[in-house]
Design a protein that fits this description.
The protein is 15% helix and 45% strand. By secondary structure, the protein is an alpha+beta fold. The protein has a domain at 1-59. Strands 1-2-3-4 form a four-stranded antiparallel sheet, with no helix packed on it. Strands 5-6-7-8 form a four-stranded antiparallel sheet, with no helix packed on it. The chain has a four-stranded antiparallel sheet with strand order 9-10-11-12, with no helix packed on it. Strand 14 and strand 15 form a beta hairpin. The longest helix is centred in the first third of the chain and has 58 residues, at 2-59.
């Protein structure tokens, strides 16, 4: 009897071992299949990544005639006669489909309102664009490319302090970000809102209004600048002086020309004979801090400004100390520690010590903004494609399009 029990137990153990072996083989098969599936999945993911990279490469063709400075993470680009926008990765977020503007020159950049005009692209999350030929109309888009305001205006400017100037039927007024005309279109000319006030022109004279359209400074001036440091340049009887926000004349009307205050100083000029002007700088109290001896003058930016002497242009600091040689024919304001300079054609960059840190070799160059600068060359090869417009970093290397 005992022997029979043992034999039965041995038989059961054999069957159990057989079941265990079968189960183990099944597990191995499942693992192999799972590995195969995982490999297939990984391969598929790899293919998708390659396709995604391929698609991304296609979107960064950089076949542009012109690329602008980055503002609020977006930059204007021109392809043929149409303009659109790219993001910081160089991806075309808004395809070139709007009518392009005139490409700005160095002289354009030196105008009073250049930094607030359309070349900035996006301002306060909206960009002014235009469409329609030959009867062009202006409207506004957001960063997705959505047209948020109708294209009904003959001219317009970018948003500043929540309002944008617009023109229709020969008259200027202002709209808010909903497109509502908050200040009636009734002025002959208009500027941007600065420090709560905007210069506007009516019946041949300039004055100032607030954001509600209320007249704050009466219309009695021949010309006017923007408010900065609490003061604005205005012209009366052929001479320029400065008023505060109450309209009080705080700096006498004795200058042949004047700019807008920047970093506490403003360029002013006196007549130098034969219609020539000699430029210098005064502070907010009207005290002359840099003598009027220069043939040309810019606005201070990052504690430096360009001035003209003899036949060349160079840079000075706020004490009047010359920090670069006067050998350039083209110059811009300093931006992010660098300024564009050129000599009879090619352009490059200098730092705040006056040292040329990026060679003077580009056919066109823009100011640094958000870490990069737009430049044009006669043509460089990137990925087997000839590129004329691209972006460089502060060490002069190509930042966009990214080289793969």
């Amino acid at each position: 009897m005992m022997r029979l029990k043992i034999e039965v137990q041995l038989l059961l153990m054999k069957k159990l071992l057989t079941v265990i072996r079968m189960f183990h083989k099944l597990i191995i098969k499942i693992k192999i299949k799972m590995k195969k599936k995982l490999c297939i999945i990984a391969f598929a993911i790899g293919l998708l990544s390659l396709v995604a990279c391929s698609d991304k490469s296609k979107s960064i063709s950089f076949n542009y005639n012109f690329v602008g400075a980055f503002h609020e993470g977006m930059a204007l680009v021109v392809n043929g006669t149409k303009m659109g926008f790219i993001n910081k990765d160089g991806i075309e977020v808004i395809p070139p489909k709007y009518e392009m503007y005139d490409i700005p020159t160095i002289l354009d950049r030196q105008k009073r309102d250049f930094k607030r005009n359309f070349y900035d692209g996006f301002s306060e999350s909206l960009a002014m664009v235009r469409k329609g030929v030959p009867f062009t109309k202006y409207g506004f888009i957001d960063k997705t490319g959505k047209e948020v305001m109708p294209f009904i205006y003959k001219d317009a400017g970018n948003f500043s302090e929540g309002l944008a100037k617009v023109k229709s039927d020969g008259k200027w007024g202002y709209i808010d970000k909903t497109g509502k005309e908050v200040i009636t279109l009734k002025y002959n000319d208009a500027g941007y809102f600065c420090e709560g006030l905007a210069r506007v022109k009516s019946d041949g004279k300039w004055g100032f209004i607030d954001a509600t359209g209320k007249e704050m400074i009466s219309f009695k001036y021949e010309d006017a600048g923007n408010y900065s440091n609490g003061l604005a340049a205005v012209k009366s009887d052929g001479k320029w002086g400065f008023i505060d926000k109450t309209g009080k004349e705080v700096i006498p009307f004795k200058y042949a020309d004047a700019g807008d205050y920047s970093e506490g100083l403003v360029r002013v000029a006196e007549s130098g004979g034969l219609l020539a002007k000699k430029w210098g700088y005064i502070d907010t109290a009207g005290i002359e801090v840099i003598p009027m001896k220069y043939s040309k003058a810019g606005d201070f930016s990052e504690n430096l400004t360009y001035v003209g002497k003899g036949t060349g242009l160079g840079y000075i600091d706020k004490t009047g100390k010359e920090i670069s040689p006067f050998k350039y024919t083209l110059v811009t304001d300093f931006s992010e520690g660098l300024a564009v300079v050129g000599a009879n054609g090619p352009m490059g960059y200098i730092d705040v010590t006056g040292k040329e840190v990026i060679p003077v070799k580009y056919t066109n160059a823009g100011e640094f903004s958000e870490g990069v600068a737009a430049v044009n060359d006669i043509g460089i090869i990137i990925g087997g494609v000839k590129i004329k417009s691209f972006y460089i970093s502060k060490n002069g290397e190509i930042a966009l399009p990214r080289q793969r």
